[in-house]
Design brief:
By secondary structure, the chain is mostly helical. It folds into two domains: about 60 residues, lambda repressor-like DNA-binding domains (434 Repressor (Amino-terminal Domain)), CATH 1.10.260; about 40 residues. It is built from six helices and no strands. Helix 2 packs across helix 3. The mean pLDDT is about 80.
Length: about 130
């Protein structure tokens, strides 16, 4: 992968990462953006932390306020932000660590989803099909 290629793509960044990056690029705090969207700050925080996602109408408004496309927010493709300039002062070791951290984050998200599925299966097995 070339340097900074697909920085905001689905294999590197999440929906929440893109929302936070676009908000920061627009120089808005969570409080300011949530007020402009007419939502609670905790709702925006949930989006940025990938705990929830907005409905289509809020997504359209969010994209408009942040000056990016809805598709870019969803999957990193389309009109959005350019990859951040990592600077020429970063040495190869730091870039390697950053890449490893990104890979670990993706793996942790997949493991969290797997954990959720296993917990659901266990609850079903413990309580039987009558309580599902």
């Amino acid at each position: 992968m070339a340097e900074n290629e697909d920085w905001y793509g689905p294999d590197v960044a999440t929906f929440g990462d893109r929302v936070a990056a676009a908000r920061e690029n627009a120089q808005m705090s969570q409080a300011v953006l949530s007020k402009r969207l007419g939502i609670k700050q905790s709702t925006l925080r949930g989006w940025e932390n990938d705990l929830s996602e907005p409905r289509a109408n809020r997504l359209a408004t969010l994209a408009g306020v942040l000056g990016v496309s809805m598709m870019w927010l969803i999957n990193g493709e389309g009109e959005g932000l350019d990859a951040p300039d990592e600077g020429q002062t970063a040495d190869a070791g730091a870039k390697e660590v950053l890449n490893e951290l990104r890979e670990l984050r993706v793996d942790l998200l997949k493991r969290a989803e797997q954990l959720g599925r296993l917990e659901k299966r266990l609850r079903t097995a413990l309580h039987g099909d009558s309580n599902v």
